């Protein structure tokens, strides 16, 4: 007997359909015959949202009045994906929705796809934040997520005829917002600029200008928990958006100047910041949402109190700083305590340290934010004073601890010199209770390299929480065929709420019938993706080939260049008529990635990949052997189609550079095998699934450091490896740029002269690993058994487990659930 845990709502399909009809008439004055899929989607979403409203209200009241500490998650990014299917699953209304849509004359999939996915994040950081919000609600933990309601979010990626990336605004709100509740009564005033004066022994900030932060609340339902937490995203608006006097004086631009300035703050995710204006806007964004969030939290837990006791604030809420973007919150809470409530410095600092915890998501120095002191002082003069005091106190503490001057200078929050900067990761480390990395290797490198001196001084601050992904979206919703097979194999669907139960699949890897059904699931998913790709992008990959996938943010350390060079090497072998019989296994290579608008080398790599695809796909000699595709604008919706269809997942960053990765977890849990370096969470995945079920290659962290120390010479690898030489020579010759040798000259020179991330050094080992992969894939039964073991042994990579680790190691140490 199958044990069912999925929620079941007390609504029939007929009632669902009738509720949609009523909302169509009330909002648009149409019936289902005249309605568009977008209108049906909006009406269905409103119905689901209305059904969740009582539970949402109850959850918010329990949070504000309860004795359990609330988690305040501060993040510049949230990549939620489409919200309707997730809400239907958690509300127990999926079957009713599907039947109701058919009754109304619509394909349920068309209605789901009518939702414009909100691109409120750039990559793994935003997807992780969304997973954690899902898990917090599913584990019945009170939480509120804070961020920005970007008008356009991350850009929409477009490729021109030459394969180059360009960016268009992502107008995700063009058809309205079915899920966000505007909460004008909770708006907060956020100030900038001005000066600080001394008045009666107190420092007083006189801001130069202010904006209004207006929250939009999004429900985050838990799976089978009854809890609905809130994601509160702030939109920046002018306090007085229209100057009638200036308009009447024909100064039309001046009449809306304040409105334009305010709207700019929440216009777009990560404005290009290579100049001072871009840096200023980024800092405005960060302070804007953090200041509004702290004020909102205090209002939530001390509503109506004339003289609140903020010494208890850490007992009500603990804020998790998701990377360095919200770290200004440490200075802001100090300002609130000192200036608005009159606390003495020592008590204010004790409260602040107990309130914040910091998650570091990088090992790259350039990703550890630093702000020019001059810009910071101009925009936030009072906060600059507070950070100077924190820095001075910290230096005194280090001296008292007998730390030598050289190390003190290296650890200062504010650097010395002519152009001092504020190191936000250092401020976060000093001002937080706990600092965590996001994979075992990453946390070790944080303690031994990136934040080594801080770990020496504060060893008790540091811990690890390996990332995870939500099985609701990335298995149950994205891969219903596999989910049904897992439920059949386990005899229960309770694994959706407890991924550790996947271990029960392990014996089924030796069950021929189960293995055959798993292979059918993968084949069906590949056929579905081929249809989706044809419909959405105009290409149709051959489902009989291996689907070899690399989808990640485009960055040099992630080494998309290594993958495309390997593809070129294989292409060179094919057109040369080489005798290497590894080509008996045809491949379809699929890339997905966006490059930051100002990242020239990343955008050049995208151009190369697109043009390699153009040449290979047009060459009849590759038919049945090799095809390459790069669909534009990779997002969660595409991932939900592609990941279940993937055979081989590429996780090939240079060892020691990837903090964790979460796509590696999604692919493994959906039955793909991984080729990867021993980097980030790859290390833990390989340990869990077994080395024989993971295709590891390349230098490890210690070898990278040793090679760098002895003097890395990338040209030597080019000279001795004929496969590498053939690939690079093709790029240099203009074979992928219509004969123009200059197009990729910078890439070629970088590979051969600099190669910061050691692509050349790992190329040979990578090619050898690919040959092992070809051999393994020629035994489909054995490949499927390996894939099943990956699923069975990756249950620990659930965001539910990660949130439990945060709970016991950081938010509420000693808690047992």
TrEMBL record:
Keyword Transcription in annotation: no
Gene Ontology cellular component annotations, sorted alphabetically: cytoplasm
Required cofactor(s): pyridoxal 5'-phosphate
SUPFAM superfamilies per UniProt: UDP-Glycosyltransferase/glycogen phosphorylase
EC number(s) given by UniProt: 2.4.1.1
One GO term (biological process): glycogen catabolic process
Catalytic activity annotation: [(1->4)-alpha-D-glucosyl](n) + phosphate = [(1->4)-alpha-D-glucosyl](n-1) + alpha-D-glucose 1-phosphate
GO molecular function list: glycogen phosphorylase activity; pyridoxal phosphate binding
N6-(pyridoxal phosphate)lysine: residues carrying this PTM: 666
Family annotation (InterPro entries): Glycg_phsphrylas (IPR011833), Glyco_trans_35 (IPR000811), Pyridoxal_P_attach_site (IPR035090)
Keyword terms: Carbohydrate metabolism, Glycogen metabolism, Glycosyltransferase, Phosphoprotein, Pyridoxal phosphate, Transferase
Family, as annotated: Belongs to the glycogen phosphorylase family.
Protein's job: Phosphorylase is an important allosteric enzyme in carbohydrate metabolism. Enzymes from different sources differ in their regulatory mechanisms and in their natural substrates. However, all known phosphorylases share catalytic and structural properties. Allosteric enzyme that catalyzes the rate-limiting step in glycogen catabolism, the phosphorolytic cleavage of glycogen to produce glucose-1-phosphate, and plays a central role in maintaining cellular and organismal glucose homeostasis.
Record protein name field: Alpha-1,4 glucan phosphorylase
Origin species: Bifidobacterium mellis
């Amino acid at each position: 007997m199958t044990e069912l845990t999925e929620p079941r709502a007390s609504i029939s399909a007929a009632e669902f359909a009738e509720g949609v009809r009523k909302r169509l008439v009330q909002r648009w004055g149409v019936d289902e015959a005249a309605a568009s899929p977008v209108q049906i989607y909006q009406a269905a979403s409103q119905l689901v949202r209305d059904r969740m409203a009582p539970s949402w209200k109850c959850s918010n009241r329990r949070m504000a009045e309860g004795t359990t500490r609330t988690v305040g998650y501060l993040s510049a990014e949230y990549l939620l994906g489409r919200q309707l299917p997730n809400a239907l699953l958690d509300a127990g209304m999926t079957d009713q929705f599907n039947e109701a849509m058919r009754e109304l004359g619509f394909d349920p999939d068309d209605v789901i796809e009518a939702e414009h996915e909100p691109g409120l994040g750039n990559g793994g950081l935003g997807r992780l934040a969304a997973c954690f919000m899902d898990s917090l609600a599913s584990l019945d933990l009170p939480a509120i997520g804070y961020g920005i309601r970007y008008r356009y979010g991350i850009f929409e990626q477009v490729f021109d005829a030459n394969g180059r990336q360009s960016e268009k605004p992502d107008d995700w709100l063009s058809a309205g917002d079915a899920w966000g509740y505007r909460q004008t009564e909770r708006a907060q005033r956020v100030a900038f600029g001005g000066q600080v004066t001394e008045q009666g022994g107190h420092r007083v900030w006189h801001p130069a200008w202010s904006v209004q932060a207006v929250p939009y609340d999004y429900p985050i339902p838990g799976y089978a928990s009854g809890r609905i937490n809130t994601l509160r995203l702030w939109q920046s608006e002018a306090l007085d958006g229209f100057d009638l006097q200036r308009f009447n004086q024909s100064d039309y631009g001046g009449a809306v100047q304040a409105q334009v300035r305010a709207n700019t703050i929440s216009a777009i995710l990560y404005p290009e910041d290579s100049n001072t204006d871009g840096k200023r806007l980024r800092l405005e964004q960060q302070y804007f949402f953090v200041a509004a969030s702290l004020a909102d939290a205090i209002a939530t837990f001390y509503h109506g109190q004339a003289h609140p006791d903020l010494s208890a604030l850490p007992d009500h809420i603990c804020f998790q700083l998701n990377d360095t973007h919200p770290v200004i919150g440490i200075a802001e809470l100090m300002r609130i305590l000192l200036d608005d409530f009159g606390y003495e410095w020592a008590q204010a600092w004790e409260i602040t340290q107990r309130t914040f915890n910091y998650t570091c998501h990088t090992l790259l120095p350039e990703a550890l934010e630093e702000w020019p002191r001059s810009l910071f002082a101009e925009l936030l003069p009072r906060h600059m004073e507070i950070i100077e005091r924190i820095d001075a106190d910290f230096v005194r503490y280090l001296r008292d601890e007998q730390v030598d001057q050289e190390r003190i200078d290296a650890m200062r929050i504010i650097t010395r010199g002519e152009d001092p900067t504020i190191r936000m990761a250092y401020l976060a480390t000093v001002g937080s209770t706990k600092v965590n990395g996001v994979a075992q290797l990453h946390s070790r490198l944080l303690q031994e390299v990136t934040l080594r001196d801080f770990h020496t001084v504060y060893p008790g601050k540091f811990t690890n929480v390996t990332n995870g992904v939500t099985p609701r979206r990335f298995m149950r919703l994205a891969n219903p065929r596999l989910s049904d097979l897992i439920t059949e194999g386990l005899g229960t669907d309770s694994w959706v709420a407890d991924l550790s139960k996947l271990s029960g699949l392990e014996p089924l890897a030796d069950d021929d019938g189960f293995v055959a059904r798993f292979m059918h699931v993968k084949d069906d998913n590949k056929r579905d993706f081929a249809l989706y790709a044809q419909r959405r992008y105009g290409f149709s990959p051959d489902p009989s080939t291996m689907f070899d996938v690399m989808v990640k943010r485009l960055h040099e350390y992630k080494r998309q260049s290594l993958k495309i060079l390997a593809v070129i090497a294989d292409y060179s072998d094919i057109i040369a008529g080489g005798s290497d019989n590894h080509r008996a296994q045809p491949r379809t290579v699929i890339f997905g990635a966006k490059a930051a608008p100002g990242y020239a080398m990343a955008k050049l790599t995208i151009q190369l990949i697109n043009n390699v695809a153009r040449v290979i796909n047009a060459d009849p000699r590759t038919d049945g052997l090799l095809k390459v595709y790069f669909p534009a604008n990779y997002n969660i919706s595409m991932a939900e189609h592609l990941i279940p269809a993937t055979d081989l997942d590429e996780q090939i960053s240079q060892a020691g550079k990837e903090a964790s990765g979460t796509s590696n977890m999604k692919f493994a849990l959906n039955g793909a095998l991984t080729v990867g370096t021993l980097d980030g969470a790859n290390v833990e995945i390989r340990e869990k699934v077994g080395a024989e079920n993971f295709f590891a290659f390349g230098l490890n962290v210690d070898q990278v450091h040793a090679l760098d120390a002895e003097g890395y010479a990338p040209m030597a690898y080019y000279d001795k490896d004929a496969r590498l030489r053939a690939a690079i020579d093709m790029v240099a010759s203009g074979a992928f740029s219509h004969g123009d040798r200059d197009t990729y000259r910078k890439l070629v020179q970088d590979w051969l002269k600099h190669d910061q991330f050691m692509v050349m050094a790992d190329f040979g080992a990578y090619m050898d690993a690919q040959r092992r992969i070809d051999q393994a894939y020629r035994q489909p039964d054995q490949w499927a058994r390996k894939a099943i073991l990956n699923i069975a042994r990756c249950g620990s990579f659930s965001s539910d487990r990660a949130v439990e680790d945060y709970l016991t190691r950081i938010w509420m140490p000693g808690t047992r659930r």
